[in-house]
Amino acid sequence: MTTIVLIHGGWHGGWCWKKLVPLLRLRGHDVHAPTLTGLGERAHLLSPEISLSTHVQDIVALLTYEDLREVMLVGHSYGGMVMTRVAEAVPHRLTQLVYLDAFVPQDGQALADLADPAFYAGLEARAKAEGEGWRVPPPPLARWGITEESDLNWMRDRVGPHPLKTFKEPVHLYDQVAATLPRTFIYCTDKPAGDSLAPLAKRLREEAGWSYRELPAGHDVMVTAPQDVAAMLDEICQAAGHALGAESGATPRRN
Q1: Angle formed at CA 111 by CA 61 and CA 151, multiple of 5 degrees
Q2: Which residues are catalytic?
Q3: Closest C-alpha among 76, 51, 87 to residue 179
Q4: Average pLDDT, rounded, for the chain
Q5: What is the DSSP letter of 51?
C-alpha cells in the first residue's frame, strides 16, 4: 500500500478526483484528495489574500495533522507549484513526487513565468474585467479536454474563480533532501496549440533525475481517462516498491 495525496489544479477542487480515487483504493492505496482554500467546497473562503503559501500550508497541515508519512504526492497543473513547495517544507514525510501534466518551477519561478504568455495575459485580463482584478474566471472546459456532455454538465457547476495572487508568488528551492526525491513527469499529449506545458515536457524528457511518461489524453486526464491514470500511478508505486526492495535486499511485496 502507498499513501497518495492528490493536489488539484487551479479552478478545481478535491471533487475533480472523484473518478480516480476509488480506482486507486481498489488497488490497495490510501488516498487523500484535499481541497485548497478558496476553491471547490471551500469557495466561501475565497479572498484576494490567498497566495501560493496558503495552499502549501493546506497540504502541509494535512500531512502533519493526519501524520502521513512515506507519501507519494501527485500534483495536477497548478498543483505542481504547490507540491514543489510542500516538498521543500516537509521532505521527510515524502517518498516521491508525480507531476501529472503539472507545472514544475525552478528556483525563483512563479506560474506566471511558466505559462504561455498569451494564455496568461488572457487570465489577467479576465481577472481585471470580471473578477475585480484578483479573481480569475475558469477557462473554457474544452481547453482542458472536456468534451463528453456528462463531464461538461458535472464540471460546469464545480469549477470556480481562482485567486490571481497564487500565480504570481515564486517558488524558492533550498532543501537538499527535497532535491533528492524521485520525480516523475506525466505529460498529456492531446492538447491545443499554445500548451504551456509542452516546453517543460520537452526539457524533462531528457533531464537527468526525472522519469518521463506520456498519456494520450487532454489536460484533465483524471476526468476523461481515470483508468489510465490509476494504472500509471499504480505502476509507479510498484516500481518504487521494487526499487526499495532491491536496495534493502528484501523481496518486495506486490499490493
Answers
A1: 80
A2: 77
A3: 87
A4: 94
A5: -
Average pLDDT of 213-230?
98
Grid cell at residue 171: 517558488
Which 3 state secondary structure label does DSSP give 104?
A: coil
Residues 6+ apart with CB under 8 A from 27: 230, 234, 255
Percent of the chain with pLDDT over 90: 92
Q: How far is CA 60 from the centre of its chain?
A: 15
The predicted model scores a pTM of: 0.94
Distances, alpha carbon 205 to alpha carbons 34, 102, 200, 214, in Å: 29, 14, 8, 10
Do 34 and 58 touch, CB atoms closer than 8 A?
Answer: yes
Altogether, the residues listed in the chain come to a count of: 255
Torsion angles phi and psi, residue 225, rounded to 5: -145, 55
Which cell goes with 197? 506545458
What are the backbone angles phi and psi of residue 128, rounded to the nearest 5°?
-70, -40
Residues with Cβ within 8 Å of residue 145, at least 6 apart in sequence: 188, 190, 191, 217, 218, 219, 220, 221, 224
Cβ–Cβ under 8 Å, residues 6 and 36: no
pLDDT (tens digit per residue) in 123-133? 999 999 999 99
Q: Using CA atoms, how far apart are residues 121 and 98, in angstroms rounded to an integer?
A: 28
Q: Are 181 and 91 in contact (CB under 8 A)?
A: yes
Q: 43 falls in which pLDDT band (50, 70, 90)?
A: very high
Measure CA 231 to chain center: 17
Query: Residue 253: is its pLDDT beyond 90?
Result: no
Residue with cell 510542500: 86
At residue 157, the pLDDT reads: 93
